[in-house]
Amino acid sequence: MRTAADIKKRCQIGTVITMTHHSWFPKGDLIGVSRPITHRQGNAIAFTPIEGHGKSWLYWPKASEMRVTGPDTFDVMLGETWDRFMSYTFGEKT
Fold first, then answer.
1. pLDDT value of position 11
2. What mean pLDDT is predicted for residues 8-22?
3. Per DSSP, which regions of the chain are E strands?
4. Whether 79 contacts 86, CB under 8 Å
């Protein structure tokens, strides 16, 4: 993966994604939980609901607000600068 478009192409239904960091909720209960993608549309993806939470959506920001950090990892900016972000890791497709 090299670009935001590559990230979006890899996000197919059934692909498992794990949130590994969230600057606003560093000890949140979704950190480290692997969840498959259940819905995909042009501007967002949705994850399987877990107990206590509804369906979670990740709405795609502008390409400049996403970055590839490794072969299976990417970050999404929270706010206007990179001092706050969410990190995700791809797992195997279910």
1. 96
2. 96
3. 15-22, 34-41, 44-47, 56-59, 66-70, 73-77, 85-93
4. no
How far CA 36 is from CA of 23, 25, 70, 71, in Å, comes to: 22, 21, 20, 19
pLDDT tens figures, 50-67:
887 788 999 999 999 999
Summarised one tens digit per residue, pLDDT across range 41-50 is 999 999 998 8
**Phi-psi category of residue 13: left, alpha or beta, with phi > 0 → left and psi -120 to 50 → alpha:** beta
Going by the DSSP 8-state scheme, the letter that residue 57 receives in this structure is: E
Q: What is the CATH number of domain 4-93?
A: 2.30.29
Q: Where are the alpha helices (DSSP H) in 3-91?
A: 4-10
Q: Pick from 59, 62, 63, 67: which is nearest to 85 by CA?
A: 67
